[in-house]
Amino acid sequence: MKILLIGATGNLGIRLLPSLLTHGHSVVAFVRSSQKLESLLPASVHCQIDVVQGNATDVTAMKQAILKYRCDAVVSTAGVAALAPWGKSDLPVIFKAVVKAVQEAGTEKGRPLRAWFLAGLGVLYYPGTESLLSDYVPIYLEHRQNIKLLKALPPNAIDWSMLCPGTMTPESSDITVPTESSHARLVTNAETPPAWRDSWMKYVPLIGKTLVSAMNAMRYETTLEQNADFIARDLESYESRWSEKTVGMIDPSK
Ligand SMILES: NC(=O)c1ccc[n+]([C@@H]2O[C@H](COP(=O)([O-])OP(=O)(O)OC[C@H]3O[C@@H](n4cnc5c(N)ncnc54)[C@H](OP(=O)(O)O)[C@@H]3O)[C@@H](O)[C@H]2O)c1
């Protein structure tokens, strides 16, 4: 597929680039600074991609990039959610703009585009309940309004999926194609975290599910490379089992 990658200079974005190339995709990187991107990439990788400089709050620029390069899919890793419940970041504004650009480009192309967005563990459901994990551990709450926005879209507006990782750590700072990972492929699940460890502690009044969520959280640490590989592999096909789903993941060794 031809993919517009928004946020290619970030921790995940810079690892998505070689993963997408490894899985046979063509990549158009949408970045605020093309110089920064060039400084982060070896020439052997930089020469394999197209680069568009622009801001992820600029709907017209992103839409034009999608249409000009005839992109079939978009991956957006741009912007970072504020940690504290009272914190504010520019992620909601970026997210809304990317959604609008992808939706409008799909309308002009006559079919919805495939898109991967990023959130966090907190927008997955506590297994067996209709409550989100962030109801119990209220951090990175801005992701909640982003998922609400996707779920409120009219049918066939965007063929979206939302990756919901816990902490992601780097395996390496080497950006090479083809990519190699020392870690196994992720185990994934829609809507709830896979391999959740429940405990009698959840019945402790008021704080039970918060305690169990906090105990589980460490187990959901994965690597940036594993998540990049997961998205790049999913985009090998136009049909995805993760369509209109939030997706949780765990390293099978945990
Ligand atoms: N890292 C984790 O452990 C983790 C865990 C769970 C969820 N997440 C979520 O995953 C996403 C990616 O995380 P990350 O660690 O890769 O973040 P990151 O390293 O901070 O990267 C953020 C990217 O967004 C770009 N960006 C910010 N504002 C922009 C704008 N207005 N226009 C264009 N680009 C803009 C930055 O570009 P510049 O280089 O120009 O600043 C950078 O490339 C975030 O939404 C984060 O909340 C991360």
UniProtKB/TrEMBL annotation:
Protein name as annotated: NAD(P)-binding protein
InterPro entries recorded: NAD(P)-bd_dom, NAD(P)-bd_dom_sf, Polyketide_Oxido-like
Molecular function GO labels: oxidoreductase activity, acting on the CH-NH group of donors, NAD or NADP as acceptor
Domain NAD(P)-binding: 7-173
PANTHER family referenced in this protein's UniProt entry, alphabetically: FLAVIN REDUCTASE (NADPH) (PTHR43355), NAD(P)-BINDING DOMAIN-CONTAINING PROTEIN (PTHR43355:SF7)
Organism: Ophiobolus disseminans
Pfam families: NAD_binding_10 (PF13460)
